[in-house]
């Protein structure tokens, strides 16, 4: 794992401190804040339960069709009629929107079947495939192909495409470009999208049955990560395995995470795969982290204190074992995201209770940033608004974190409740976006190839005010996540092999030459954000497609 800390982060902090000293020798606390929150929109009309960043810079968001009437109307007088809907059979409001990051505007989309607690992944061509949900949406597959903001692209739905009900399932893109859909409520099986023929089929996965805590479940939305050998890491409740989905067999089972606290819905911890270092020809180090959750039985016992521990498991070790760490704040329903630096942000959630209607208290409004190399948690000083059950977060190409949602109620509820339904959209700017880092921040000018090939050379031209040394520069690709219910599905970072950096004296710009990822198992085909990170400070991303 590459260390993202360096002396220039320290130098930036010292500079900010020196700026903040007042004449009487006291520090101005307002100038010491290196991170910040920004309210983007007070309402997007829906509560952002699910989020996916698309390669055209748009973000698609949706909640569920049976929340009742939302605060945004469908365009052109369109109304949706669904005789099976449990809230509004005739509904002229939207339950999905397309958000334009650049213009900070949104437009409504028309989703017909119920997307409540569903899952998703993006195909190699950039089309979002969204699966499952509730009621008439439980076997649905939906597709959304990116288009311009002013165009009229919308959801295309296939209501009975899936072989089984997929409510609280997890999706993962595979090396061959297919998507595996795993689990769901009382679904101890998995299936592939697209299916081979007109008949949809599923395959048993008894591990999911074994990890169910009866009525408390604690194995929904299993954490799934694609490994460099092509197998899947699957974590459910307290147990984890390496699973060969092609042969339908468990390759390896790991020790249970210590402490006995469940980590999956409704106990709802979160998980990430640490960045994969593809810079040398040796075996790639693979490490997983799982954080937060709720004690066993917490769903039935009321507002018990959330779990404060994290576990790190290095799968590439000869005999992997969990290394436990303690977060500075207990957290359930937190969202874990990889930042371009390789650090991890944990945002949203509560300090007591579980996921579910009215099941949590004590919102955790401060994000935590974790530095993996130093095993260091930092509680960030700037608080946000409460983001409880049904909130979400994703990484944006400019390095900010987009945060929205929160609705712990059966329907939209804005009054006379402790945590009203939240329709707002916020952006969090980590410390690396503070203006004092601008002199050492790369700016991508051009990528020689918009389409990258495995193990093939490509170039990125960039400008920078103060280039320090090639040893402090790295090239990273990040797969944008489908985030819902405290898990960023398909989130992935690969550190690519940097070959050289040259300077153009005429334009005073630089060119970095690097190699595309080694294999489709390390980086499945599809669209990625490419970042340059220099002395711990990331550029904004450009988009590339890996074929």
Walkthrough of the structure:
- By secondary structure, the protein is mostly beta strands.
- It has 2 domains: 36-433, Methylamine Dehydrogenase, Chain H; 436-546, Immunoglobulins (Immunoglobulin-like, Sandwich), CATH 2.60.40.
Say what oligomer this is: single chain
Any idea what the CATH architecture of the largest domain is?
7 Propeller
> Quick one: biggest sheet?
7 strands, mixed
Low-confidence stretches: 4-32
Distance between the ends: 26 Å
Globular, elongated, flat, extended or rod-shaped: what is the shape? Answer: globular
User: Which class best fits the helix and strand makeup?
Assistant: mainly beta
Mean model confidence by pLDDT: 92
CATH class descriptor name of the largest domain: Mainly Beta
The CATH superfamily of the largest domain turns out to be Galactose oxidase/kelch, beta-propeller
Q: Rounded to an integer, what's the Rg over CA atoms?
A: 22 Å
What is the percentage of strand-forming residues?
A: 35-45%
CATH topology of the largest domain: Methylamine Dehydrogenase, Chain H
Helix content: under 10%
Q: List the domain count as a whole number.
A: 2
| SS summary, helix count | 3
User: How many strand segments?
Assistant: 45
Signal peptide: 1-27
Organism: Arabidopsis thaliana (Mouse-ear cress)
Keywords: Signal
Pfam families: Glyoxal_oxid_N, GO-like_E_set
